[in-house]
Every structure is written in C-alpha cells, then in structure tokens.
Amino acid sequence: MNVLNYSTYYDKVLGGWLGKCIGGACGALSENNKNILHYTIDNVFPEVIPPNDDLDLQILWLQEGLEKIGVGMTREDFGALFAKYNVCLANEYAVSIRNINLGILPPVSGTYDNSYFLNSMGCPIRSEIWALLAPGSFRTVKRYAEMDGSVDHGSESIYGEIFNAVIEAAAFFETDREALIEIALKEIPSDCRQYKSIHFALACYREQTDWATARNRLVRKFGSMDASYSVVNLGLTMLAFLYGEGDYTKTLLYAVNGGYDTDCTAATALSILGIMAGAERTPQFWKDKIGNELVVGTVDIDCRYPTIEAFAKATCAAGLSFREAGLWDVQLTGIPAEAVPSLPETLQKPLSIEVCYQGSPVIGIGEESVLLLTVKNHTPEEVSGVLEIRGPDYLVCSLSSVSLTLCPQAETTLTLNIKAPETLCALPMKNLFQATCCGVSRDFGLFGAMRMKLFGPYWDNYDTTQYPEDPYEEKMQKLPNGDGDIHAMFNGFVNINREYLPEDFQQLPQDFEWVNIHGSEFDLEPAVTYRGPACVYLVHEFTLEHAVPNGHFHFGCNAPAKIWVNGELVLDNQAYYAWTIFNCTAPASLKAGKNRIIFKLSRTDAFRFSVFCRNWEDRGRFICNITSLGE
C-alpha cells in the first residue's frame, strides 16, 4: 500500500489546482483553433484571467454536492446540480440540461439527442476533483468519474474522464511519465478510440518523432471538425505531457500550440505535472502570474473558497471524509489536529428505485414506450409497501400501484408500458412521472415527440421523349460509342427555390402523412422511403404558455433548406454542409398560444437536419415547454 504524508498530500492537491488554473487561463486565448499555434512564454498568459467552466463545475461538485450530501452522491444528484447551477450553456451542457429538465436523468441525459457532442470535452476536464479526493485509489476515482461523465456524455468522453482521473490519482506516487500513461490506459477499454489516440501519442514519443510531425499525424488519424472532440484532445494532451519532458513551460506551450480545445489540454497537462511536483516545486514565475484568487463565473453559486489555497484546503478536508468512508487505497500519515473530515454523513435510504428505458426515452402519439422499474431493498429487514406510479392523465400506464414485499438486500423489477393514444389531439414535450414506495420517490420523464405533417417527397425528372437535352443543364453522359443519354436513367433533381407547394401556405393539400419527430434530429428515413434526391415540407403546429420574444434557432442541415416561423421566412440556406447542430442560426420570436413552423428540407442521399431553440430570457436554455398539436 502506498503511504502519503498529509503535508505532501496538501502540497500536491494545491499543485494540481494551480496547474488547472494556469493551464486553463493560458489555453483560453487560443481555444478552438485547430491548427498549430505559435505562442511563447511572453504572450501565452492572458491580460485578464477568465472564469473557466472546466474548474467551476468541480467547485460546484465540492461546495453544493459533496459538502451538502456527502460521499454518497448519486448520478441523479450530479444531474440536479448541473441543471440548477450551470450557466455555461454551450454544446452538450445545453442538451444535457434540457434533458434533465424533461425528467431524462443521468446516465441517459448524456446520451439522448446528443449525437454531435456525445464524445466532446465537457467531462474529461472535470477529472481532477476525483483524483485529489482519492489519491492512488483507482476504483474510487473511476466510479465518481463515470457518474460525473454520464451527466452530459457517452462512452469515449467518459473513458476520457476516467483516464484523466486515474493518471492524476497515480501522479501522487509515480514520477515516470510513460509509466503513468500505461497505468491509466489499463483502466479503459483497449478497443476504444480514446485508448488508441493516447497509445498513438505514446508510440510517437517512443519512436522519437518530432513533436510537430507527431501532432499532425495524430490529428490526421483522430481529428475532427469539432474542436472539443475528446479523442483528439486527450491525444494532444499526452503529446504535450510527454514532449514537455517534465518542464512546466515546455509542457504548457506544447499543449496550447497543439490547438483544438486548448484550455482543456493545457489545464489537464499542468494538473498532472502539478500533482507530480507539488505546489512548492511549481515554477514561481507561473505562480506569480496566476496569483491566489479563485476566479469563478460559469456556475450560479456564492463560492465559499476565495482563494486557490482555500479550495485546496477544502479539497483535502473532503478527501479525509473519502478516506474515513473507506474510499482510499492509500495510507495517510502525519494528519494535523486541525485537519478534520468535512463532509456530512450520507443518509442511506431504505429503498431505491431505478428506471431503465427500453430504447429511447421518447413517446409519440400512437406509440408505446417501455421502461423497467427496479426497486431495491438496502436494509437487513424485510420491507413491504406499495409502489405507486403517477403520470400525465393523457398517457395510459400499464401500472398505477403494485404491492411489494422485498426480502433483505433483495430487489424486484417491473415492466411499465406507457401508451400515447392515436386519438390524442396534443402532446407536450415534457411528460413527467413519479414512482414512490415507502416514502422514497424517483422522478423520470419521456420526451414528447414533435407531431408534424409531412408533405412529399417531391423531385424533378425530365422526359427524354420531349427534351432532346437535359433541361436542368446537367452534364450529358454519353455511352462509349457516343450514342444515347444514360443520364436519363439516373436523373432526379431538387431545387430548393422551386415551389413544390404554394409557399404562401394558405391552402395545403390533404395528401400528407403524420410523422413523429423523436428529438432535435429529424429521422425522416422511415417515412421517406423514396431513394434519390428529394424535397419535403414539414408543418409543425404547437402551443406555448408564454411568449418567447427573444429566442434563437440553431439549425443543423447538410443541404439547402428554408424555414418559415409564423409566416416569416427565417432561414434561406442555399449551401451544402457537413452536418453540425450549429450550421445555421436565426432569431426566433414565438407567441403565447399557437405557433406554426414550416420546414422545407432537401437532400441528396439522406436527410440530416436538426433544430434547437434557445430562450435568451432564460439564460439561453433550450426551449422544452412546447405542446405539439396533432389535429
């Protein structure tokens, strides 16, 4: 068993937080630039230290989570804190918070409707707290990192947070950089891309490839147009950690000049070095640069830690509680009298209720959703009670109450079927349920699919019996002998500017199909089975209880599209893109009461379209209180 003296523990915790603050501040200047940069020691530090969500969320976990709940924090606790206090509503954060507000809790909050940012950097950057609370204790840091990461991410990003937490926990005792990487790699699956990116960085270093070549090779192999893609960022972090040769400034500059999510890469690299060296051996030049003030700004809390040193002391006090709870695999010596555990005892509830969606957490008109409810008895006594399930009266549940008797430490699982009748005239996006038993409750929700009218598909052909040449002025394709036009075999064209329906939309045809859209991404392939270029119109009518005069749409599209909101053309996109959720934006003004959005979408091979709408009067949160009309 490793042995750690308390004074060394505090010095390394402070060193880790200093590295986090210094690296985050320096990397913020160049964040999201995906090319090699050229910062130097003279210009890499900002004039004003910005707040950093990478650090702020870890302050949130300690102050509002652990210090109020104790070491027994659950993934549901993480989700509740994240949705309540996080005011940095970028990317996966905004999607996760919307999901949680819809009752879709971790771990599903991190994966549902979050395909683009599923494996981004939002959670690997929150790893330090777990390593500093449980040095050298891999089973503990892995458990908390997984719960933390599941709030807003899926597999690769969670593996990234686990890797970072383990390498930081190991850095309390191991001084060899290559050995540290090998230790942490053992704790994630060897077939995941995260492992392969990090292993590639290690191989380049061992082969003595120069840094710039190694960096470019890694980006070509693991890069993404998303600057926050975690797989490439962890590889870049490890390149900086290795090629920096243990030198603080070299490591920092390699991380920042490697590009991509540079506040994340630089902060993690320096956190590891800071833990290895401790605060005492952190270069005074950088300690003078960062100072001692703890800058907080992306979480809505009154931070109780005015300085980095105060935060380090609070971290160590919480670490003593982790040790007291048996979560350390390390012996701690030399504990001073004034150093006492700070966390409250987590009260163990006699029962717990777990919810497992059998598929996506969505229901649409005419559809059924299936869930499993597992009730666990955590006591040494037999427990009897009634499980009651309450939900919206417009949805039909297969269970409302069930009598249960559970043996000590036993559990039972029940299947819950929820139906939305075909006759429903309206379906809210937010559909909340509550399961209760013996005074214990569990909330959960289903996303109400957006009900839309689908017109089309439409496309254009040309008749070779009427036109000697292609009227669309496409390149003619002749047979090898020069005869005939084989293009006619494959023609099929779409022009977003052609009105396949009258675009005053006063009189829409009755030839349409109802479709349920199960998230922000429009999966139209089941409804549009025609193969080839095509155009469709989708009409979405919905109600809002309150007006949203200051909204903002984010449209993701891979082909030309037009969108009308309450009769106003708000998007006229003529371009083709690689799809992201932010390809196009437009202001939104939505009324209290009934609204109507018409989407005109085109495709070449497949539709790829998505829509989110923010409400800037609600801190930019994604709107989720709409009710789709189905008649």
UniProtKB/TrEMBL annotation:
Coiled coil: none annotated. Its cofactor is Mg(2+). GO terms for molecular function: metal ion binding. InterPro entries: Ribosyl_crysJ1 (IPR005502), Ribosyl_crysJ1_sf (IPR036705). Binds 2 magnesium ions per subunit. Pfam families: ADP_ribosyl_GH (PF03747). Mg(2+) binds at residues 261, 263. Keywords: Magnesium, Metal-binding. This is ADP-ribosylglycohydrolase family protein. It comes from Hydrogeniiclostridium mannosilyticum.
